[in-house]
Amino acid sequence: MRLTKEIFFSSYIVHEVLNHSNSGINVVDTEGTLVYVNEISANYLHLHPEAMIGKHISEFYPAAILLTVLENHRPILDKKLHLVPPNKYVVNSYPIFFDGTFVGAYSVFQNIQEIEQLNSKIKYLEMQINLSKPEADFQHVVHQGTMQNIYKQAKKIVGSLGGPRHSIITGESGTGKTMLANLIYNYAKQIGVIEKNAPFIEINCAQFTNPDIAAMEIFGSVEGAYTGSKKKKGLFEQANGGILFLDEAHTIESYQNLLLKAIESGKIRRIGDTRETDINVIVIAASTKNLHEVFLPELYQRLAQYEMHLPALRERSIEEREELFLHFVQRYENAVWETRHIRYHVTFTPEAHQAILTAVYPRNIRQMRDVINYSIDASSPLIEDIGEKTEITTIVGMEHIPFEATELPKMVQAEASPIHCKPNNKISPQIADFIRKQHEAGMGPRKIAHALEGMGFAIPYYKVAYFLKTEKSKT
């Protein structure tokens, strides 16, 4: 009697433990008949364990991993599969041996649908951050037009024999003023004008609605300078030995004299302090306004030792816009690879490509980037439709471009260029035959375009992709 109670108590404990597990558990005999089901497993199917025990597992889980274990008598670990769509489970299945004889198998599994959805959202956010973060440097992207001259001028700010100078950068919103300031900073580190770990301090002056707070942020303060003030290191001190980038500098008003004194003397005084601190800072002021009309003449003179104006995107050549276009497409493809490890090939139809290049962008490069990203998003397959694919291709057409981009007046004229294709351009029969053969041999649009370039034919990859798509629709 005592043994029976012990057996019962032991069985009861095991049953309770398994039922309070966070995982579903199924146990089958050698025929696949369920001999044990815990409550978690039954709950996944909205059933009770008693309704499942004694029946074949395939009645409830047609793709059960246990069926494979019953055949090969070997464990299968960390297998992901959709057992009850849309739920996704991770399953570990093991054979059961008793005195060396195979007597059945069991599975331990968890619903990971919420985790998968969360991971998917995190990856999406990571990709959006990668796509929307400011460019660090366009000099390796744009190799033509006025921007190359501006890049050379920017390097002279810190690279001339006379030593580094303060400077002013003007241009419309989204033309790349912050990017140019970063270029100056990186080049200064590269040539040893500033240390490798020198700071780059950026501040948007327009964020200050109170001039007293602005002065405290830029020059610092001491405790007791005014009610509630604390000892605080200002931006000039934080930027010591490096660069202080004042964006939207036209909003500087009542503290222009303090700024002028700091630049002229190389010293700053915290608000409320009697001592001065030596500083060695290169100041770059950026604005969408003409600072000559806004700043005190003396301050403008000190800052405008080098003044650069970034042209709006509509003022730049079609070749430069093409290079920016290719850069943003490549950046999107790289972001997909980094976040999802999928080789993503994006092509634009000739019409869509032409529309992107010739549209007018009031917010300039930033808006062009956003329109390209939106268009690719609109043409991309859903994550759930990709499955286990590791390489996919999408074609962006006019229907994928946002309304505001396609409806903007085409003020930008597309200059004639051998590297640009228009929608009505024809591919010669010889080239068409070459493309077909290379594609049949397994080459993609980019590799085919590269091969054509080596043969002296400047046909962009998107035109090759469009040709192949057209050919496929004929079959």
3D structure, described in words:
42% of the residues lie in helices and 18% in strands. The protein is of the alpha/beta class. Strand 1 and strand 2 form a beta hairpin. Helix 17 crosses helix 18. The N terminus is likely disordered.
If you average the pLDDT, what whole number results? Answer: 80
- In DSSP terms, counting alpha (H) and pi (I) runs of 4 or more, how many helices? 18
Shape: flat
Compute the number of strand runs.
14
* Main sheet strand line-up: 2-1-5-4-3
Helix content: 40-55%
Our Rg estimate from Cα atoms comes to 33 Å
Segments where pLDDT lies below 50 for 5+ residues? 1-9, 406-425
| SS content category | alpha/beta
**What about the largest sheet?**
5 strands, antiparallel
Q: What is the terminal-to-terminal distance?
A: 80 Å
Strand content: 15-25%
